Amino acid sequence: MNKLIVLIADIEDSKKLSNKEREKLQNDLSILLEALNNESRTIVSPYTITLGDEFQAVFKSAEGICTDILKILAGLYPVRVRFSVGVGEINTPINKEQAIGMDGPAFHAARKGIEVLKESGFLFYLGVAGQDLPVIDLINNSLQLLSKQVRGWNKNRLRILYMLKEGADYKAITEELDISKTAFYKNKKAASLDVVRELSENMAGIINHQLKSYY
Description:
This protein is of the alpha+beta class.
C-alpha cells in the first residue's frame, strides 16, 4: 500500500471566541478550504471540517502543502492555527468526497503531532509513521524556531511568503498587497523569507522521499 500525507489542523483558543466571532471564523474557514480544494493538484481527500475546531485533508505528494498552510494562516489572521503533517499508510479506503471515515498510521502520526503541539505551544509538526529519523527531528526543531517567528508576523508577511512560493515577483506582490517596494524588501529581509521558503522546499522534498520508501 502506498504512503500518503495527512494534514490535521487545529484552531488555537477557539473556545475563547464569542458566538459572533466563531460564526465569522467558521464562514471564513469554509470559504477558504473550498478554494484550496479547487486549487490543489495533489489532494486526494479534500479539506474537511471534522470538529468545530479542526479540519483535515489527505495528499499524494507534498507540493503545495506549505503554501496552503500559509494561505490558511493569512486567511484566518489574527486567529492562529496548529498544523500537524503525518506521513504513512492509510489502511482504509480513501474517501474522495470528505476527509472522514479513514484510519491508519498516517492519521495516527498526524494526530500525535496535534497533541504534541497543544502541549508545546508550537504551530508546526512533521511525523513519519513507523520511523524515527534524525532528519525529521531536525525539521521539527526548525519548525519550532519558525513557529516563534510566525507568531510575530502580520498578515502581509504571510501573504508575501506564499506569493513568493507561488512564483510572484515583487511588482505583482506590491500591487496585490498595496505596499511599497521598500516595505516588500523590509519584510523579506526582516523575516528571512528566502530561508523560510528554502526550508519549506527542503521539507517537501524529504516528505516526498519518504512517500517513495517502504517500511
